[in-house]
Design goal:
Blueprint (H helix, E strand, L loop, with lengths): L1 H31 L3 H26 L3 H31 L9 H9 L10 H14 L1
Helix pairs in contact: 1-2, 2-3
Length: about 140
């Protein structure tokens, strides 16, 4: 049985080295990336690679609590990427001179088209009435 343990350990150590090299490449991409979207994807990939390293270490060290750490890190990494995307979207809209709230969709598209027409139709009066009804309901 001991003859199988040595190649198994070499496989785990080799995978850890490969994953570490991929993390370095991902970090380089997150710094160099030509666009913000590339950087966000690289940060997400780095988080995923770290999760994989924790999982491999769990098997290598035979410590089951590392699986729990891995799951918690996955949740935190996911939330971090969602926050980064939300911030990036807000910065992008601010640079374009658009509003980022939900009620500004019509105004933003009107600015894109160079006029104040509605995407949902040209009936501005009915939109105003709907807005008044919503405000009265509050």
């Amino acid at each position: 049985m001991e003859a199988l343990e040595t190649p198994y350990e070499w496989l785990l150590v080799g995978s850890l080295i490969l994953l570490a090299a991929l993390i370095i490449a991902s970090l380089i991409r997150s710094v160099i990336g030509p666009r913000i979207a590339d950087r966000i994807i690289a940060v997400n990939m780095t988080g995923t690679l770290i999760i994989m390293i924790i999982a491999v270490l769990s098997v290598y060290l035979d410590e089951s609590y590392l699986v729990d750490v891995c799951l918690i890190y996955a949740m935190i990494s996911f939330l971090g990427v969602v926050v980064l995307c939300k911030v990036y979207t807000g910065v992008y809209l601010q640079q374009k001179g658009r509003k980022a709230d939900l009620g500004a969709v019509e105004e933003n598209i009107g600015r894109q088209q160079g006029k104040e027409s509605s995407v949902f139709g040209n009936n501005r009066e009915s939109f105003g009435k709907d807005k008044k009804v919503r405000e009265a309901a509050k």
